[in-house]
Automatic annotation (TrEMBL), chain A:
The gene is oppD. It is found in: Cell membrane. PROSITE patterns: ABC_TRANSPORTER_1, ABC_TRANSPORTER_2. One of its GO terms (molecular function) is ATP binding. This is Peptide ABC transporter ATP-binding protein. It comes from Halolactibacillus alkaliphilus.
UniProtKB/TrEMBL annotation, chain B:
This is Glutathione ABC transporter permease. GO terms for cellular component: plasma membrane. The gene is oppB. The lineage of its organism: Bacteria, Bacillati, Bacillota, Bacilli, Bacillales. Residues 95-303 form the ABC transmembrane type-1 domain. Keywords: Cell membrane, Membrane, Transmembrane, Transmembrane helix, Transport.
């Protein structure tokens, strides 16, 4: 096994080691996150990409230990500034949440409490973590609204969420998350529910705030465009496992894992003329989690899969260009075509 | 807010007119001649005619209705047949008792209902949740009068347990707290059960909402997540139920007052029904209807205070 920190140029603020989170039903255990490894560099952005059900959201909720029953973190380590979060008490966790690690969610329309004003909801963070008085917290809340680019913040703090548009609400969510100047911001598909023009604004805002405040970001998304635009590193997840983890440039220029290649191929390009080449898709669909493939999770859908792939699960290994890849093709044990070129099929 | 209350009050006018039409028709729709009934069984033909004239029953119906409504508005509800006293006075001396019985019972149902509802919701699926919900079902299914009698049996007459007797409370009357405990429990139990079930299901719906996750992600304590972030949202549908429950409560008050010999409106009405004292029955129904409408306006106000998504204007 390789270390996730190996590919970073910076110190890691967060390192996730072999994280396992499962959901238990009466009949079986669903391994939503199954041995995930990655690290987040200080002041930079890590993207986590994958289809629905790949475990990216569960991974992010695990970092804040917000997994609710019947889910449970059953193994691994999450090192935040060198300390294992999983070993902390609930009271210690509360001091981290919203203070050192914050999170914004996919659905701005439902992520704010409808019966409290925007100001009250931002103030709460100040009051919990910085012992501010109500008045002072309200003043700071207005400043936060200004920071996230909401006009006339003094009036806005008194409004209720239903009086704001989706984009505005996501800005409020960002204001709540950044209130206590966190070192790590987890953004779980922050733009998925928004209009395209608003998406661009929100991403720009996050990038701008990162430059100003210097926090690290985990950007969870299924949108490779968002990754290209905002991330420095990227972890591609498939069925609860990281299949490729690399610098963002390397993933786009030289993807190694057949799944990553498949994802890139299914992305329409507007920048170059591809002529008559058809947009490709990844054949098949994600298997049901109660019926996991025995070998490589991607083998049933992989165009290169051999017997070895179906039988044994590969480890995450460092390839020659530095990408960390979970694929037999790049190991000595590979039993298929030695000359196979995974990215040969790339249309782009 | 003031505007809203005023408008809401104006909106109740048609309801109140409907109520007066109903109570007005009540006396005229019952089988038999009201004048005959009011004059008494042994009355002669002249006496009946006299009564009819006195009651204005020979006037056209709209005139009769107008007379009745102007009586209601000016507080003249006619005289009791049984003892000849003004109905308004009979009601005035008893209404306080019934309203306080209903008020304390509502208070008890809301208090117990919310506490147990939240308790069950945060322990969803556990044994304590199941036990609370079974108890609620039991409380809901128990007939009022039966619960009252059982309570009298065990806590007024009492049982000898070890060295003391459990006859702590009184079984009749209204005034001291010993007299008030048992009737309030009797009347409040069903409401508490309904509110507990409602609160539980409403809490379960709210606790899975995204904004609860947001609150947790902020580092808010679980207790505050439950009581400040979840409960305030969960109470919105519960408040409506409390208003509707009040109607059932007034019906229950009639029974409870009789079981505990409380001299309130309910008991007055039952006595009046038995002795065919129609002016009293008519006015009793009217007062109950007014109370119900008034309480539901209050519920509407509270509902709007809780639910910010509803524009007051």
């Amino acid at each position: 096994m390789v270390k996730a920190t190996d590919i970073l140029d910076q110190e890691p603020i967060l390192e996730v080691k072999d994280l396992q989170t499962s959901f238990f039903t009466d009949k079986f255990e669903v391994k939503a996150v199954d041995g995930v490894n990655f690290a987040v560099p200080k002041g930079k952005t890590l993207g986590i990409v994958g289809e629905s059900g790949s475990g990216k959201s569960i991974t992010s909720l695990s970092i804040l230990r917000l997994i609710q029953n019947p889910g449970k973190i059953i193994g691994g380590e999450i090192l935040f500034k060198g300390e294992n979060i999983l070993k902390k008490s609930e009271a210690e966790m509360r001091k981290i949440r919203g203070n050192e690690i914050s999170m914004i969610f996919q659905e701005p329309m439902t992520s704010l409490n409808p019966v409290y004003t925007v100001g009250q909801q931002i103030s709460e963070s100040f009051m919990i973590h910085q012992n501010m008085s109500k008045k002072e917290a309200m003043k700071r809340s207005a400043e936060m609204l200004e920071l996230v680019g909401i006009p006339s913040p003094k009036q806005r703090v008194k409004q209720y969420p239903h009086e704001l548009s989706g984009g505005m609400r996501q800005r409020v969510m960002i204001a709540i998350a950044l209130a206590c100047d966190p070192e790590l911001l987890i953004a779980d598909e922050p733009t998925t529910a928004l209009d395209v023009t608003i998406q661009a604004q929100i991403l720009e805002l996050m990038k701008d705030l990162q430059d100003r405040l210097g926090m690290s970001i985990i950007m969870i998304t299924h949108d490779l465009g968002v990754v290209a635009e905002t991330c420095d590193y990227v972890a591609v997840m498939y069925m609860g496992k990281v299949v490729e983890y690399a610098k963002v440039r390397d993933v786009f220029k030289n993807p190694k894992h057949p799944y990553t290649v498949g994802l890139l191929n299914s992305l329409p390009r507007h920048d170059i003329d591809l002529g008559d080449v058809e947009l490709q898709v990844i054949e098949g669909s994600v298997p049901s989690p109660d019926n996991l493939p025995k070998g490589c999770r991607f083998a049933p859908r992989c165009p290169f899969a051999t017997e070895l792939c179906h039988e044994k699960l590969p480890d995450l290994e460092q390839s020659d260009n530095g990408n960390q890849i979970r694929c037999w093709i790049y190991t000595d044990e590979w039993d298929g075509d030695q000359e196979v070129d995974v990215s040969a099929k790339r249309t782009t | 807010m003031f505007q809203f209350i005023v408008r809401r009050l104006i909106q109740t006018i048609p309801v109140l007119i409907g109520v007066t039409i109903l109570t007005f028709s009540m006396v005229r729709l019952i089988p038999g001649d009201p004048a005959q009934i009011m004059a008494g069984e042994s009355a002669s033909q002249e006496q009946i005619e006299l009564t009819r004239e006195r009651l204005g029953l020979n006037d056209p119906l709209p005139v009769q209705y107008f007379d009745y409504v102007s009586g209601v508005v000016t507080g003249d509800l006619g005289n009791s047949i049984r003892n000849g006293r003004p109905v308004a006075d009979e009601i005035k001396v008893r209404i306080g008792t019934t309203v306080s019985l209903a008020f304390y019972s509502t208070l008890l149902s809301v208090f117990l209902g919310i506490i147990f509802g939240v308790f069950a919701a945060v322990r969803r699926g556990k044994l304590s949740d199941t036990l609370v919900m079974i108890a609620a079902l039991f409380g809901l299914s128990m007939p009022n009068f039966w619960l009252g009698l059982i309570l009298i049996q065990y806590f007024a007459i009492g049982r000898d347990v070890l060295f003391f007797n459990t006859g702590w409370f009184l079984a009749s009357g209204w005034g001291t707290w010993q007299q008030m405990v048992l009737p309030v429990i009797t009347l409040g139990t069903a409401g508490a059960a309904i509110i507990a079930r409602m609160t539980r299901s409403s809490m379960l719906e709210v606790i899975d909402q995204d904004y609860i996750r947001t609150a947790r992600a902020k580092g808010v304590k679980e207790r505050i997540v439950v009581y400040r972030h979840a409960l305030k949202n969960a109470l919105i549908p519960v408040v409506t139920v409390v208003g509707l429950q009040f109607g059932a409560l007034l019906g229950g008050a009639v029974i409870t007052e009789n079981v505990f010999a409380i001299n309130g409106l309910g008991r007055l009405m039952v006595g009046a029904i038995n002795s065919r004292d129609f002016p009293i029955v008519q006015s009793g129904v009217l007062v109950f209807a007014f109370l119900f409408v008034f309480v539901n306006i209050m519920v509407d106000v509270i509902y709007r205070l809780l639910n910010k998504r509803i524009d007051l204007n």
